[in-house]
Amino acid sequence: MLYHLLVPFADEFTVFNVFRYITFRAGGAILTALVVCFLVGPSFIRWLRAKQKRGQPIREDGPQSHLLTKAGTPTMGGFLILFSVVVSTLLWADLTNQYVWLVLTVTIGYGLIGFVDDYRKVTKRTSAGLSARGKLVLQFAIAFIAVWWVMKISPEPLATSVAVPFFKNLLVPLSVGFLVFGALVVVFISNAVNLTDGLDGLAIVPVMVASASFGLISYVVGNTIFADYLQLHQVPGTGELAILCGALVGAGLGFLWFNAPPAMIFMGDTGSLSLGGTLGAIAVATKHEIVLGIVGGLFVFEATSVIVQVASFKLTGKRVFRMAPVHHHFEQLGWKEPTIVIRFWIISVILALIGLATLKLR
User: Fold this and answer.
1) Mind listing the pLDDT tens digit for each residue in 16-31?
2) Which residues contact 362 (CB under 8 A, 6 or more apart)?
3) Kind and range of the H or E element at 131?
4) With contact defined as beta carbons under 8 Å apart, do 195 and 302 qualify?
5) pLDDT digits over 168-188, tens only?
6) On the CB side of 292, how many CA atoms lie within 13 Å of its CA?
7) Residues 191-211: what's their mean pLDDT?
8) What share of the chain is helix, strand, coil (3-state, %, to 5)?
9) Are 238 and 286 in contact (CB under 8 A)?
10) Could you give phi then psi for residue 330, rounded to 5 degrees?
11) Phi (first) and psi of residue 161, to 5 degrees
12) What's the mean pLDDT in 336-350?
């Protein structure tokens, strides 16, 4: 909004020229989302406590300590993140950019799926929520629309191909199969973030780290000079996604203020599904799906631990981990919650640095 309001006056008032720059507007998006979280957060949490009474139902098959330490904490805190992200993005982004609307569609759509799931949990006092099949159907429906949209607005041959990191010219053409591949990326990372969100502050910091990483990736991939210098496949227009990534970082910081141990609020599926879906959509749009698997390696590890646990138990009757997702395994080993959370944060930063290294190592 500010871009459209103030840039036309840049020739007369040079101070407005800064609104042409994505870097300036990304910084503005970070601060705006952070301030919105701080302003809205306290009253929003009080309102949720009044409405939810007993807070989010705690899984009975999870760590027994959670039944004591986390009982009564309200959920649906993802609304605070989404509200901050949407307000900040609409304020600072170029609203004629289709990539911005594409990713916002996934963010809001997945947020609504998460809301329905959280609402059922709270109102029916169960940790089940929506059925797994129901959630997957809705997630894939939105993902297919988003990936189709990407294919329509991306340049050929990138529109239907997968770029392979470490190789400057290697593209794997998938034709119509890219629709399935892209949707799988979005749905997988959405559910992977959801599985990671099991301890106070555990998911939101890796989300911020991944968002910051893809803010940089979006900027360089959308910039002709930087893309040529780094020998990346340029995707014109994706630079504007750096604004949305900045909003995610700012909203994440604001939410962490209230989600830091002991959490005053949980993001719930409203937040985790939408944040993961957003990262997946940005990765597909910037043609860095494989790099997302590195940058978001912590999420991949968490999701894989569940897949391995279920497969092992069904095939052999034995469990690989004491409890899945894997962060609960470390709880069962005696690790304290803050120790697990901070060490997983460190791992996410290391993985992000490795992922960003792929921009240059070609």
Assistant:
1) 889 999 999 999 999 9
2) 165, 166, 167, 168, 230, 231
3) none
4) yes
5) 778 999 999 999 999 999 999
6) 31
7) 95
8) 70, 0, 30
9) yes
10) -70, -30
11) -125, 160
12) 95
